[in-house]
Design a protein that fits this description.
By secondary structure, the protein is mostly helical. The chain is 66% helix and 0% strand. Helix 1 packs parallel to helix 3, helix 3 packs across helix 4 and helix 3 runs parallel beside helix 5. It comes from Georgenia satyanarayanai. This is N-acetylmuramic acid 6-phosphate etherase.
Amino acid sequence: EKLRARTVTILTQATGLGRPACEAVLEEAGGDLKVALVMSLAGTDPTAARTALTAADGVVRTAVQSLSAPTPSSPSRREP
């Protein structure tokens, strides 16, 4: 219980979400803090978060960036 409370606190501080929202995300993530972080920061589901984390060798920032990167069908800048 103490570890879970600490995990929720970390998630709350990292995402800016309220405690109830963080508890729900953590539950959906199966208790995995990294998955919950990626889900919250990238706005994705647990499966996509896990896949991105695997591709990013477990680095949360890289996983979030990969999910937030523009796709070829939606360029980030306009062509002249």
